[in-house]
Hints:
Blueprint: E1 2-3, E2 9-10, H1 12-18, H2 22-28, E3 34-39, E4 42-47, H3 50-56, E5 62-63, H4 70-77, H5 87-101, H6 109-124, E6 127-130, H7 131-147, H8 156-168, H9 175-199, H10 210-216, H11 227-257, H12 262-266, H13 270-283, E7 289-294, E8 298-300, E9 303-305, E10 310-314, H14 315-318, H15 363-379, E11 405-408
Parallel strand pairs: 4-10
Antiparallel strand pairs: 1-2, 3-4, 5-7, 6-11, 7-10, 8-9
Helix pairs in contact: 4-9, 6-7, 6-15, 7-8, 7-11, 8-9, 8-11, 9-10, 9-11, 10-11, 11-13, 11-15, 13-15
The protein binds protoporphyrin IX containing FE.
Binding site for heme: 360
Keywords: Heme, Iron, Metal-binding, Monooxygenase, Oxidoreductase
GO molecular function, one term: heme binding
Amino acid sequence: MLVDLMGRMDDTLTLAIQGYGWLPNRLRHSPQDVVRTRLLGQTTVALRGPDAARFFYDEQHIRRHGAIPEPLRGTLFGKGAVHTLDGEPHRVRKAMFTALLMNGGYDGLVERAETAWDAATRSWAGRQVVLFDETAPVLARAVCEWTGIPVQPQDLPALAADLVAMVDGFATAGPRHWRARRARGRRERWLADIVTQVRRGELDVPPGAALAAVAAHRDSDGELLDPQIAAVELLNIIRPTVAVTWFVTFAGHALHRWPEHRGRLRQGDAVFAEAFAHEVRRFYPFAPFIGGRARTDLTWRGTDIPAGAIVLLDLYGQNHDARLWPDPYRFDPDRFVGREIGAFDLVPQGGGDPRTGHRCPGEQITVALLKALAVRLARLDHQVPAQDLDIPLHRIPTRPVSGLVMAVPARSAAPLSTH
Ligand code: HEM
């Protein structure tokens, strides 16, 4: 921890050094699960636990406008994104996402991902492949087909690389960050142009496809989205879908480390596959925390939170809290078999109600894709040769260093159906 010129402690450097460990380390010594510190020179209060999540997701307490620092807006989310809205403008924009992404709105996406995966695995026969690198174009193909965004097959690898770069570079300075910014600029221009073509009737889009819905969406002011903002929101569908690559790679890691889970997945046990997907999302590190700003002067468990202060909710720490998850560092999908998951318990993608709050609207899609691809991965005949499978916790976002190299024998080409 550093001390600023006024003698106040600032945790920015510690966060950069400790990554996922930073908040759990700071909160370990707080019986009230709250810690007050400074980030980027600003008062910051970090909270953990289901009650804290309820407090955090109360719109009377926390606003999102002005909460996301520019380096994150310029890479991960985009300027003017749904993530940064509050109140009625948020609800109207969010309704577009929940209609497209929840409760069967995503029909067809998983099937497309399975088809793309099967085509890819046929080309893996007799080769060594990197699971991370192979999965991203599979998901990019599936989500572009599903949203109606036109992409030539030969352009998919570059698109997948740009979408991965936007996620990979949000929490760092240096080359990864600049790669992310360039990727975002390039893809926003491309998609803004596509939206304009759709509006002019120059491009055919299947009715009901996400591209058509975003192009036609009207915000709470009754206006169509500026093409730039429409591009940002289309990226907020295709980028995180491709980000499921991280979880698929973690699933591959889990199957290698704990091969005893392979059998039930291979059999296509749907209840177990869903539990496995939840355990991957709980166990492995992805989103470390989320942030907002205090609307007014607040108090949480005796700690004052001044109006305007940054408020963080520790997602990674909550997903590894032994009070919620006994033996939290044991990878145990069975903990989710028969367990009702509360709205504020399992928070890899935020908490609360996605319809009214900022919780991720892509959670059902994430689980459905992960279930389907974990089953296929378990059925894929492959070896995991010696490699660096370390998952460094100081790096945000992290992944197995090798990306998970798999050696696929020549005769394992034929995929097995999950149906
Ligand atoms: C790869 C797995 C994913 C992870 C780890 C993840 C994580 C998150 C997190 C932590 C949030 C912020 C919640 C909050 O601020 O309260 C979020 C929001 C969001 N996610 Fe995801 N997500 C994933 C997949 C998806 C998918 C597949 C989609 C869409 C297809 C999606 C679309 C969104 C959108 C639009 C928001 C903004 C919601 C709002 O501000 O109201 N995410 N996600």
